Structure of Metal-binding protein:
Amino acid sequence: MPESAGREYTLLGADGRRYRSRTPGALGGHRRLKIYGRLDCPAALRALARGGYIAHRVFFADEDTAIAAGYRPCAVCSRAAYRAWHAGLAD
């Protein structure tokens, strides 16, 4: 039986509202900074280790949902997506 069997996770939807899911999030984010990235992101892991970040942690099912909710890619772990996002600001 998979580890997540019977568990529920709280994810953020495209509308920015929380919902319950039996599938864990594929991406993590920071609610105040409106940033999303990989769960193994070195910058996020350092921030979590320092504390404080955990209170603003959110999770997304996928990248499209994070973007639709108004979050931007992390410049550390999602460098290519961040560059594309940043280039879009200059247009």
